[in-house]
Specification:
This protein is of the alpha+beta class. 42% of the residues lie in helices and 20% in strands. The chain has 21 helices and 23 strands. It has a 6-stranded antiparallel beta sheet with strand order 12-7-8-9-10-15. Helix 15 runs parallel beside helix 17. It comes from Morchella conica CCBAS932. GO terms for molecular function: ATP binding; ATP hydrolysis activity. Pfam families: AAA (PF00004), DUF7025 (PF22942). This is P-loop containing nucleoside triphosphate hydrolase protein.
C-alpha cells in the first residue's frame, strides 16, 4: 500500500492543479501590429481601454514621420558641416605659400645596405629605416655619388629638380642629344655632363633672352599702369608671373655657373687651343657636337661628309676615339640613313684639327667649295638609283677580307645595280632607315613597306643636306672582271658609244642585214609573237661558228653597241663542269642578263652543245639542263663554236639564226687593217698597206700586230711605219712556223703511239 500523504503535500498539489485550470481557461487575444512600422507590437494594457487602438496607431504614425524628418535634417546638417570644413581646409591650403626651392646643388650618396638594397642619403648619414618621400625635392639640382658593393665610387649623376630648368632644357636641347632625352618628367644625367657642355653657349643665350624679356615685361607693366584706359589686371597673377620669371632666371644662372665651374679646365684648354686650330686628344670630344657635319677622307683619298652622333674613348689593345656617324645610302629600293664608325688614334700633345682623320666640316679651310662638290656628287649618287650602264676606271672594292676589303683594278664598262648586288650577295647588304618621303608611311609614321611588304614608287628628291651626306660608293658588276664590287662615284663616267661599230663589222652584206633586222625586231618586239606556253621561246638565240679570229665575238659586241645594251660575255669555265654548278651558275647569269636587258655572249660553248650519248650520263645532264634553261630565256644570246658538226640535234630547233664565218679573204683583211690603222695619215701608207695585206692573218692577229707595232714605235718616239710592222710580222711568222711544227710533231707522235696501242 502507498504511504499516507501529508497535509503539506496535498496543499501543494491542489494549488498546482488550480493554477493549471486557470491557465487552461484563459485565452489571450492576438496582439495587433503597427501599420506604419512592421513588426511593432502593441502592449495588452493599451488595448484594454476603449478607443485606445485608433489613438495609438495615429500617435505611432506621427512619431515615425517626426523621427524620419529629424534624421534627414541631421544628415543635411552633417553634410553642410563637412563641406564647410573642407572649404575651410582648402582656403587654408591656398593661403599657405609654397616653399621656394633652394638655388643650390644638394650632394647625396647612393649606397648598398647590408641586405643588398640601394638607398639614397646625405653624406655621413645612416641608411633610412624605411622608404620615404623625396626629402630633397626642394633643391634645384641633386648631385649623386654612386658606390658599388665594395663601397667604392663607381659613378656620378645629376638630377634636375627645378621645373624651370626642365622647361629650359626641353626647349634648348630637347631630343637633339643622342642617348639623352630632356623631355622626360625626371631628368637624370651621368657625368661627365657632355650634353650640357655642348649646349652651354645656347643656355647662356637663353639666359640673356630671359633677362631681356623680364626687363621688357617690367617696362610694359609700368606703361600699362600709367595708361588711363587700360583695364587693371589681377595683381596676384602679375606677382606670381614675375616671381616665376625671376625664379627661372635665378635657376638657369646657377646652372650656367655650375657648368662653368665643372668644366673650368676644359674651357680654359679649349680657349687656348681652338683659336690656333689645335686640339689635344684629351679634349677631342669638345669639337664633336652631335648633329654636326663631319668631314673625312676614306680609302683612296675619297672625300666624304658624315653626320656625327656620339663619341667614346675606347681603351684596350687598340685605344682610339670612336666616332659613331650616319650617312645617306641606297639599299636598292629606298634612300635612307645608315651607320658606321670612324676611329681617331691617340696622339701626344696637340694636333692640327684639319690633320685629324675626321673633323667638323666648319673647320675646313675650303668649306664652301667642299660642300658644293659633295652636294653635286650626291646628286649623281641620287641619279644612280635603279641600274645604269657606265664606264669605270679605278679600283673596285670587293668582298671583306682580314685586313679590309679586296681591291680590284677595273677599266671598262660596268653595270651599277644595287638591288641585284644585294640579291646576289646577301651577306654584303646594308640596313637603312628610309628618309622621310622615301618609304610609304601611315599617319602615325609607321613604315607600310615593312608592315605590308609592298613597294610604292617614290619621287621626292633628296635635299642638299641629304646629298651632302650621300655615300661615295655605288654597288654593281664589273663586266670584264666578272666581279661584284663597289665603285667610286667619282670614277664613273657615261659611255662613249661607237656609232660605227656595226658598219665596221666584216660580214657579207646579206648576213649583216639579217642580224641587224632580227636584233632590232627583238628589241622593239614588233610582232608580239609568243609560244603556246606563255613566256616560252621569246628569246633571240644565234649560233656563230667558224675558225677563230674571223669576227664571231665582234658580231656580238657590235650588236650590243648598236642596241646600246650591256654585253655580258661568259666562258664555259664560269658555268662549271657538273650539273648542279651549271644549273646554279647559268640560272643566275640568265636572270641577271634578263634584268639588265643585256646581250649575252657564251663563248666556246661546245661542251654544252655536243650530242648526247647512252654512256656519258654527266654530259647528258649538262646538255639537258642547258636546253631547258635556254628555252625560257627572253633576251639576246650569241653562242660561238668551232665545232658545229658535233651539236646535239635538239639545238637546231632552238636556234633562230646560224651564221657561218669563213677565213678572211684579201678584201676582208684590207677592211680589218683599215679599221685598226689610218694608213692615209702615214707616209707611204698605200705601199705599207699593200705590203701587209697579203699576209694570211685573221682579225685578232691583225689587231695584236697593230697594237704591238704602236708600242714599239712609241718606245722609239716615232710614228708607226713599215719597219715596225715588219718586225712584228716577222716575229709572228716565226712563232707560227714553230707552233705548226709542234702541232705536226704532236700529231705524228700521236699516230705512232696509237699504232703501238698507247693512245
Amino acid at each position: 500500500m502507498p504511504a499516507p500523504m501529508s497535509e503539506e503535500e496535498r496543499q501543494r498539489i491542489s494549488g498546482n492543479s488550480a493554477l493549471k485550470r486557470a491557465e487552461s481557461g484563459f485565452r489571450r487575444a492576438p496582439l495587433p501590429r503597427s501599420s506604419t512600422t512592421p513588426g511593432a507590437i502593441v502592449s495588452a494594457m493599451e488595448i484594454t481601454q476603449p478607443g485606445s487602438s485608433a489613438k495609438l496607431l495615429a500617435a505611432k504614425d506621427g512619431d515615425t514621420k517626426k523621427s524620419k524628418r529629424s534624421k534627414k535634417k541631421a544628415k543635411k546638417d552633417k553634410k553642410k558641416e563637412g563641406e564647410a570644413e573642407e572649404q575651410k581646409d582648402g582656403e587654408t591650403e591656398t593661403e599657405q605659400p609654397k616653399p621656394k626651392m633652394e638655388v643650390t646643388v644638394k650632394h647625396l650618396e647612393k649606397r648598398f645596405d647590408d641586405q643588398g638594397h640601394r638607398y639614397l642619403t646625405e653624406p655621413g648619414s645612416e641608411p633610412p629605416k624605411k622608404a620615404t618621400e623625396d626629402k630633397w625635392a626642394n633643391y634645384i639640382l641633386c648631385e649623386i655619388t654612386h658606390f658599388n658593393w665594395e663601397q667604392k665610387v663607381c659613378q656620378r649623376s645629376l638630377q634636375v629638380k627645378s621645373k624651370h630648368l626642365k622647361a629650359v632644357l626641353r626647349k634648348v636641347i630637347g631630343d637633339q642629344y643622342p642617348g639623352v632625352s630632356f623631355r622626360t618628367v625626371a631628368i637624370k644625367l651621368s657625368f661627365p655632363l657632355n650634353s650640357l657642355y655642348h649646349y652651354l653657349e645656347e643656355l647662356k643665350a637663353e639666359l640673356e633672352v630671359m633677362k631681356k624679356a623680364s626687363a621688357a615685361d617690367t617696362e610694359k607693366k609700368e606703361e600699362t599702369n600709367g595708361g588711363a584706359n587700360e583695364k587693371p589686371k589681377n595683381p596676384e597673377e602679375e606677382k606670381l608671373s614675375k616671381e616665376d620669371a625671376e625664379e627661372a632666371i635665378a635657376h638657369l644662372e646657377y646652372l650656367v655657373n655650375y657648368l662653368e665651374i665643372e668644366f673650368d679646365e676644359v674651357i680654359k684648354d679649349v680657349a687656348n687651343l681652338l683659336p690656333q686650330g689645335l686640339i689635344s686628344y684629351e679634349i677631342l670630344w669638345t669639337i664633336f657636337k652631335p648633329g654636326r657635319a663631319i668631314y673625312a677622307r676614306s680609302h683612296h683619298d675619297q672625300q666624304r661628309c658624315l653626320q656625327f652622333e656620339r663619341g667614346d674613348y675606347i681603351n684596350g689593345n687598340e685605344p682610339h676615339y670612336s666616332l659613331d656617324v650616319k650617312y645617306v645610302d641606297y639599299d636598292g629600293k629606298y634612300f635612307g640613313m645608315t651607320q658606321t664608325t670612324v676611329p681617331i688614334l691617340p696622339f701626344e700633345g696637340t694636333m692640327k684639327i684639319t690633320s685629324l682623320a675626321a673633323f667638323p666640316l666648319e673647320y675646313h679651310p675650303k668649306k664652301d667649295a667642299v660642300s658644293k662638290f659633295l652636294i653635286e656628287r650626291g646628286r649623281r649618287f641620287e641619279g644612280l638609283k635603279g641600274y645604269h650602264y657606265m664606264e669605270y676606271t679605278g679600283v673596285g672594292l670587293g668582298e671583306t677580307i682580314r685586313c679590309g676589303r679586296a681591291q680590284y683594278s677595273i677599266k671598262g664598262r660596268v653595270m651599277c645595280d644595287k638591288a641585284t648586288y644585294n640579291r646576289i650577295n646577301p651577306d654584303r647588304g646594308i640596313m637603312i632607315v628610309p628618309l622621310p618621303g622615301q618609304a610609304p608611311q601611315s599617319e602615325d609614321g609607321e613604315n607600310l613597306f615593312m608592315k605590308n611588304n609592298c613597294e610604292l614608287p617614290t619621287t621626292k628628291p633628296l635635299t642638299d643636306e641629304q646629298c651632302l651626306l650621300a655615300s661615295f660608293l655605288i654597288s654593281g658588276f664589273a663586266l670584264s672582271e666578272k666581279k661584284w664590287v663597289d665603285f667610286y662615284i667619282d670614277n664613273l663616267s657615261p659611255i662613249q658609244w661607237n656609232e660605227n661599230a656595226f658598219d665596221q663589222l666584216v660580214l657579207p652584206p646579206s648576213q649583216k642585214s639579217l642580224v641587224r633586222a632580227l636584233v632590232e625586231s627583238h628589241v622593239r618586239d614588233l610582232d608580239g609573237f609568243d609560244d603556246i606556253i606563255k613566256g616560252k621561246g621569246k628569246g633571240f638565240i644565234s649560233i656563230l661558228h667558224g675558225p677563230p679570229g674571223v669576227g664571231k665575238t665582234l658580231t656580238a659586241e657590235s650588236v650590243a653597241e648598236h642596241t646600246r645594251r650591256p654585253l655580258y660575255a661568259v666562258s664555259s669555265g664560269e658555268l662549271g663542269v657538273n650539273p648542279k654548278d651549271l644549273e646554279d651558275n647559268l640560272s643566275r647569269i640568265l636572270d641577271v642578263a634578263t634584268q639588265w636587258k643585256a646581250v649575252l655572249l657564251l663563248d666556246e660553248a661546245d661542251v654544252f652543245l655536243e650530242t648526247r650519248s647512252l654512256h656519258d650520263l654527266t654530259r647528258n645532264s649538262l646538255v639537258s639542263i642547258f636546253l631547258r634553261l635556254l628555252e625560257y630565256y627572253q633576251g639576246i644570246l650569241f653562242l660561238t663554236s668551232n665545232r658545229v658538226t658535233t651539236f646535239d640535234e635538239a639545238f637546231q630547233s632552238r636556234i633562230h639564226v646560224a651564221l657561218k664565218y669563213n677565213k678572211l679573204d684579201r678584201d676582208a683583211r684590207m677592211q680589218v687593217w683599215k679599221n685598226f690603222m689610218n694608213f692615209d695619215d702615214l707616209k707611204g701608207g698605200k705601199e705599207l698597206l699593200e705590203s701587209v695585206i697579203d699576209r694570211e692573218l685573221n682579225g685578232r692577229q691583225i689587231k695584236n700586230c697593230v697594237r704591238t707595232a704602236r708600242s714599239l714605235a712609241e718606245s722609239e718616239g716615232k710614228k708607226v711605219d713599215l719597219s715596225h710592222l715588219m718586225v712584228v710580222l716577222d716575229i709572228q711568222q716565226r712563232f707560227e712556223n714553230d707552233f705548226g711544227g709542234l702541232i705536226t710533231g704532236a700529231v705524228t707522235n700521236g699516230i705512232s703511239d696509237t699504232s703501238n696501242g698507247k693512245m
